[in-house]
Amino acid sequence: MDIKQIHKLLTGGYLVLPVFILLAFLSRVFAGITFHDYISWIVLAIQIGIAFLLLQINHEFRVIEKRTFLPATFFLLFTASNPALYENLQSNISALAIVLCLIPVLKNYHNNQSQASSFNIALILTSVSIFCWQPLLFFIPLFWIGFQWFRCFNVRVFFASILGILTVYLFLSAWCLYNNDWTMFYNQLSQIGEVFSIQLIELHWLDWVVGAFIVILLIISAIDIFMTGFSEKVRTTLFFKFLYLLIIVSFILACFLNSVINDIQVTTSALISFITGYYFTMSDNNKWATYLLLFTILFFVWYYVFQIF
Q1: Which stretches of 31-179 are DSSP H helices?
Q2: Is-contact 165 144, C-beta < 8 A?
Q3: What is the C-alpha separation between 129 and 133, in angstroms, rounded?
């Protein structure tokens, strides 16, 4: 089997995704997760759902022109290699919300009547922020920027988004008023305040190595997308530009708000998976990219094994 056949097998082989799903399952078994730890298996189910949602986004909007399963397989690889993400249910729900909100952005390219999508994005992110992860509110202005880049942002879209935020908090206020108990409302305000408590990042050396490797992958992918990929559709380039914006802001949050590091990893894994999946799929004529693809898979396998043993 030559290097091109290996590339084709890893990017478009029908058995690749089932194999990675099986590996994600086995990674939990080897980590000592039993079937009584139902939270871990719910998390795995959500992660598999996110993986298929990434494939659906690519299939519906043809972000990657060639047949590929890499966005899904990379996401399962990234999340399975880090046991710290096995039981964090809230962060996985938050990641699912972010990925779901990518669909309206792509769907409303050059659409001036995108108020409903803006309202839905704000409604989803605000609702999930209340029950799962408060920093999701930071992402709503980023989606405004995304709508602006996609030429579908206007005053009506902005106020529809504000209405989506207010709707959630009005329901929360009505619930507290009905129960004559404002504890939940005050807890939400206090938790938002805690998010702004700056605490610089503290990572183990192994996490720094993984972070540096991911940054290198993102830089290589950016060079390919924005400097050499002139033949790509404008919508595709803008979409990856928006993904990079989300990733950069996520990295900034992780650096200055140490408490959000674990919560943000699943979201960034999904975004990075799409970018790197595009790069490796479209680099089928570059044997060095295939070698890097193989090294990336082995690197994250080593990362998992090092933590377990």
Answers
A1: 38-61, 70-80, 89-107, 115-131, 139-149, 155-179
A2: no
A3: 4
